[in-house]
Amino acid sequence: MKITSKQLREKWLSFYEGKGHVDIGAVSLIGDGSTGVMFNVAGMQPLMPYLLGKKHPDGKRLCNVQGCVRTVDIESVGDASHFTFFEMMGNWSLGDYFKKEKTAWTFELLTKVFGLEKDKLCVTVFEGNESAPRDDETAELLKNLGIASEHIYFLPKSDNWWELEGTVGTPCGPDNEWFYPLDAGKKNPVFPDDYVEIGNDVYMQYKKKETGYEPLENKNVDTGFGFDRMLLFLNGLSDGYKTDLFAPVIEELERVSGRKYGAGEDTKAMRIIADHTRTAVMLIGDEQGIQPSNTGAGYILRRLMRRAIRYCRQLGVESSAMLGAAKIFIEKIYGEAYPRLLEKEEYVLGEIKKEADRFEATLAQGIKEFEKCVTSLERKNEFMLKSNPSYVKETVIGGKQAFRLYDTYGFPLELTEELARENGLTVDEQGFEAAFAEHREKSRVLAAGQFKGGLESGSETATKYHTATHLLNAALKIVCSSDIQQKGSNINEERLRFDFNFARKLTPEEVESVEKLINEQIKLNVPVVLKEMSLEEARDGGFVGVFGNKYGETVKTYSIGEFSKEICGGPHVASTGELGTFKITKQENVSAGIKRIKAILK
What we know:
alpha+beta; four-stranded antiparallel β-sheet; globular; 18 helices
């Protein structure tokens, strides 16, 4: 069955809408802090409050196609199946239907709608342990649907169980995962050697206790199927970069480079350029879009973009090739599904060009830094030989030096090794890997949790800037329009960035009025008061929020007198007198109807 990405998107949503589900649409790729991660890494992540018991405004049956970003496997991108941005097709039952309906619907979708051969489907279910029984119920339902017993595998908790690690009182339960052969032409496939997971259905039927589990009264279903991977299977492909999500970009890279996509290093380079450019487009063009920087989510974005630029050089093309790829992603591939990208196209392309220009200059500096390493080594050898004629010359560039070239100047180890060979030297690869491992652990800790409120750190300075965004939000409502709402923020040690809905830039008089109002509140040294209350009480009390229906039943509110009242989970100063003097430094257009202010505290 040949199918386009547009058709797949429509088929998934229309199938579940036909089963009484509501399409809730996609939310921002940038984590809001409520689930403790920097990016949304799974389709179910934004729905966590509802899976934990909160009532969803759209009912008990939901579906969508949600964009996700995962960066733990950046170094694996370049093969046929790893991506940093991808989409998850999801559907959920919040205390409504359960295993009987879900197994039947998934089977119907895969076999009758998508045309997969039922005799080639394999599934895995929970084998049971001392805390929860074997999931024979799901296995029997699958057999009754026509899946052969020998294609149903019972696997341990590590494979077929979902729960929130480190929590108590949260829903959890077994899942069944669906597999299909990567080479669909094989008559006698063997699981798991040539099978790939295409999706899973999680059955949240237990409540996690201190020891063991107890049955839940209201049971949930959480389904997730990979959009990119399903498109691959349905088109009989084994290379994810040959689907219509990438093919036009690969063709453009072939055109500008004069090289062919196939086996070898050129293919790896094209995949990396295409994948990382796609993710950059999605992150910059997101409703809470970020910019490349040296901290937090901006650092991850910068790393991806610079890796793509390095591989542009390897492919023998200018970094402007990224702009061509980005334009295709926006206009031909994702513009219809994500219309915000079309609105922000000029801005997205501008940010990519700025980062490419910066990195080109950085690469030149990196070459100079490498030459310093060589000169330093030569001087050391010269000095040692003068005092000890039998001294054996040192010919190895240190691992930490090589990693500094990688981390600071974007040099891959291969480039440093190539430059070293030209100078008759080698590189301490083990030392490089040790430095890399240390860096990876630090990055893992960083990626595991993003500070709330758009902060890239939880420092005293960033906390002050976060409190200042509350004052800015309130002042803009007073000076410009009561309809103004925050559309995103980013805070680091140097400044705050605040996005909001407004048709035009502020006039000089409006800028002056906003600054005056904020600085008056600072001079008054108004206490910043925290109170926890129900979401209903907060809204009735005039507190405003950013993330709509993502809050739990109880929320934190911060009031600065009657000037500012917001629902927020981020850190704040005790009183406004700690902030100093507020100054707007820049205004920018983000997209149609969205403006950005950058400001500092002096």
